[in-house]
Amino acid sequence: MSGHVLLILIGVTVVLKVGQEIFVPLALSLLLTFTLAPIVSFLRRRSVPKIAAVMIAVASAFCAIALFSVIVASQVANLAQNIPAYQRNIVVKVQTLAQAGSGDGIMKHLSGIVERVGEEIQTRAEESQDATAAAATAPTSREPMPVEIVTRSNPIQTLGNFILPLISPFATAGLVIVLVIFMLLEREDLRDRFIRLVGLNDLHRTTEALQDAGKRVGKYLLMQLVVNALYAFPITIGLWILGIPNAILWGLLTLVLRFVPYIGPVIGMILPLFLALAIAPGWSLVFWVGALFLTTELISNNVVEPWLYGSHTGLSPLAIIISAIFWSWLWGPLGLMLSTPLTVCLVVLGRYVPQFSFLDVLLGNDPVLEPHEKLYQRLLAGDPDEATANAEEYLEDEYLLDYYEKVGMPALLLGEGDRQRGVMSDAQVERFSGSVRSLVDNLSEIADEEETEEEAPKDDENDGTGESVAMDLPDGTGHSLLCIGGRGEIDDAAATMLAQLLEIQGANALGVAHSTTDMRMLKDSDTIDTVVFTFLNGNSKTHARSFVRRLKRLKPGLRVGLFVPLANGQDNPRLTLEDTNADFITLTLADTVRSALTETGPVPLMTITRKLGRPRIRLAKTA
């Protein structure tokens, strides 16, 4: 993120904070427009005129909001009248906790505070009663009359000071209604103007961004409303059955608060728990209320939300928490309610505007590293345990060959590329290759399981998709192979992977390091029939040809192959069987296993023909 972009973000934050009274109604109108747009489109497809469809959608939405507000206000008023009746139960519970705790504990101090507050209230009440009685019995006497200086004010100003605080919420609501109506009526025109303003040069990207934002926000708000309603209904019924006063109020509050993921449900549960603590003398009601909320939350998260797909926003859990803190600081409680949909819009902005791509990286839930990049980072850090955990998760649906082919070998190629560029030290190379060997050892149990599977009939194991080639490899029983690293420790790690894959097929394979191999031992060995050299450096033609010819001279009946993933690349010289005298040259692990286990004889060593530039000069013998 450049400093220029950072200054822009700071400036935008300051503007949003200062212009809160302007931007809050605008943000509310925009989000309500996203929410009601699918309803308007639904009515339009049923041949309802555009104006009528907009009015029906807006009237329905705001009538529901008004009804919600009236119910909440009446419930709050009723709750306020009953609060003094709950004071005694709270004092008793605090005293009970104090008796159960230590003498000098926190609960003792808390109990003392409550008792002192009660005594103070009682003392003030007695003093007030004594003063009233004394005033009634005292003889009438002329007391000095207090004089109060009253500043005359304008009646219109006094009326304005009284009315304006009451009018302000209704004025904001009216402004939002008007904005929503016009945004829905002019939705197509506003879309075209936005495209003309910011994205005419890249019409496809801008159109996709608008569709993505509308789909994400609209689907989130509508589906989350359905999910929250299905959550609030059993909460309301359950609280009513348990005897919690104002159950409708708590149900409606949970419906609204669940728009704030992770934080909202906790806040919605605390108030009913506190009320259960206040109205009942025992503790059973508190536990029953807590069990009600926890059970409903589990059912909603694991059944309702996956069924309706209402919880997918494209945001990471940490981003949701941070956005809730930021927007609540910026715009207060209303900002907390709008935090998730507004952050979704920021993620869409980062996804389609290159200058703000960091927003998608910081706030989105899409993986920012490819699997092979993540594996390379873990191996480079010397953490084979986390790499093993990721591999085991991958191997739940794939074979080990697929993992090594798609993830493991690309990670090794990244390491070899960094080594060739000189950005890896010798210590890092050693740590990286050692982590690879540890990873292979950790996956040996899975390799043993796959070897057992390979011995079973294969007809039922292949689903016919063709995505995995593990089922198409030949049986390696009776074969004995040696996998040797070509030029370095990373090549040795690749040879270890290859040896494990050959063992899965039933072959007797061994991975050997390039620096500890005495090739002369193969001359007297009757068990090894194939040797495979691994070269991750594609520019290894000279080394490969030297190794192959050396082995074939030592043991003419030996098959020698080359596994060079980057062979014949754009920057690498072409490797051919004629140049290297190898029995096979492969680019992938699957082809290497297949070629190494093929029942064919070795290619004979070709004789190098000398090309003499000129005849040799023989010196005449002297008498």
Could you explain how this protein is built, in words?
- The protein has 623 residues and is mainly α.
- 66% of the residues lie in helices and 4% in strands.
- It has 22 helices and five strands.
- Helix 2 (20-45) packs across helix 8, helix 8 packs antiparallel against helix 11 (284-308) and helix 17 (426-442) runs parallel beside helix 19.
- The protein is elongated and about 125 Å long.
- Residues 456-466 have low confidence and may be disordered.
Overall mean pLDDT stands at 75
Assign the structural class, choosing from mainly alpha, mainly beta, alpha/beta, alpha+beta, or little secondary structure.
mainly alpha
In DSSP terms (H or I, runs of 4 or more residues), the helix count works out at 22
- What is the number of beta strands? 5
Helix content: 55-70%
Order of helices and strands: HHHHHHHHHHHHHHHHHHEHEEHEHEH
Binned strand content: under 5%
What best-fitting shape do the alpha-carbon axes yield?
elongated
Strand order of the largest sheet: 2-1-3-4-5
Report on the biggest sheet.
Answer: 5 strands, parallel
Provide the gyration radius in Å. 39 Å
Question: pLDDT below 50 for ≥5 consecutive residues: which ranges?
Answer: 456-466
Report, as a whole number of angstroms, the end-to-end distance. Answer: 90 Å
